[in-house]
Amino acid sequence: MLMDWKIVVPLLAVAFIMTSAAGTPGGVVDADMKDQATRDALQFAVAEYNKGTNDPYVWQVAKVVKAQKQVVAGMKYFFTVQMARTLCRKGGVEKDCAVHPGPAVTNQCTFEVWSRPWLGAIQLIKNDCQP
């Protein structure tokens, strides 16, 4: 019986270390902005933000401050970004929109996006922007 513990305890310690190193399953981890799904989620959040504002101009991401994700029933993305007002008017045909010249009008925004691709569902859960 004593011999069993000499084997079991080190195995449990190794399992604990490996689990800790990999992160908590379902925990929030940093997201890679090179990943297409992450970029699509941010693009969706920005499009929803632009739909919801009364501003006649389009806003775009000037800087990604933080991007994270969490495996849930699908994937949740958490973004903290600096948004800047562009010269493009909503409903316009411009593809490339330059940031407004002069002192840029910016907002710090926090977006939370829930994506469930197998259902074709994507939803903006949180949209909080402050000047």
Automatic annotation (TrEMBL):
Keywords recorded for this protein, A-Z: Disulfide bond, Signal
InterPro entries noted in UniProt: Cystatin_dom, Cystatin_sf, Prot_inh_cystat_CS
Stretches assigned to coiled coil: none
SUPFAM superfamilies the UniProt entry points to: Cystatin/monellin
Gene Ontology molecular function, alphabetical: cysteine-type endopeptidase inhibitor activity
PROSITE patterns recorded: CYSTATIN
Family designation: Belongs to the cystatin family.
Protein name in UniProt: Cystatin-like
